[in-house]
Specification:
Layout (H helix, E strand, L loop, with lengths): L5 H10 L5 E3 L4 E4 L8 E4 L5 H10 L2 H51 L8 E7 L3 H17 L4 E4 L4 E2 L6 H7 L3 E8 L13
Parallel strand pairs: 4-5
Antiparallel strand pairs: 1-2, 2-3, 4-7, 5-6
Helix pairs in contact: 1-3, 4-5
Organism: Escherichia coli
Protein name: Ead/Ea22-like family protein
Length: 197
């Protein structure tokens, strides 16, 4: 940044003769308004006097104030944009962390050993004792067999196939928590899966 004192420059422009300034072909710069109207407010001599007169007339107080206003506007705009970028950078960081976590979870799910084969449904059952798992296993297995789909079960320790011989009595004793984790069932014409397209 330059060493220009913008506040001092603004005060000088506000206190100078207002209005249009123009240069003549003889002595210098004439003010068109204010107390100095029709008086020379700057005189120039030397080989560059015409160029200097034109510059002084163009750099009148109104022009300087307009430039200072524009500079102030763009400085405040730069501050707003910088703040916006800084605010969004934390949002982007949080989104990037979520993306990394999601990609890691996808990799874990894809790497697991228990994957349903084509035509099977992987179901996770929790909140049961062995007979409770058997009960819900039997209920779901019967429902899936009714539509011709085999079911693989996992209890968190090891994968196993369960039948539900005692499911009628056990189901009344336990509140099942069942979550279908993955479905790999090819669609047959006329059969729709609830929640599917």
């Amino acid at each position: 940044m330059s060493n220009i004192n913008y506040q001092a420059l603004r005060m000088a422009a506000e206190n100078a003769t207002p209005g249009e300034w123009c240069s003549d072909n003889y002595y210098g710069v004439i003010a068109d308004a204010g107390l100095n109207a029709n008086y020379y407010i700057a005189s120039c001599s030397g080989p560059d006097n015409r160029a200097n007169k034109r510059f002084i007339a163009a750099a009148n107080p109104a022009a300087v104030l307009a430039l200072l206003d524009e500079l102030e506007y763009y400085k405040s705009r730069e501050e707003r944009v910088t703040k916006l970028v800084m605010d969004n950078s934390t949002s982007w960081d949080a989104l990037y962390k979520k993306l990394e976590a999601a990609e890691k979870r996808i990799a874990e799910l894809e790497a697991r050993e228990t994957k349903p084969a084509k035509g099977e449904v992987l179901v996770v059952v929790s909140g049961f004792t062995g007979c409770g798992k058997s009960a819900i296993a039997g209920e779901i297995e019967i429902a899936m067999k009714a539509i011709g789909v085999p079911v693989k079960w996992t209890n968190g320790d090891a994968e196993k196939r369960m039948t539900g011989a005692d499911w009628l009595t056990a189901i009344e004793m336990y509140k099942p928590t069942v979550r279908i984790v993955e479905v790999n069932v090819p669609r047959v014409a006329g059969i729709r899966i609830k929640g599917g397209e």
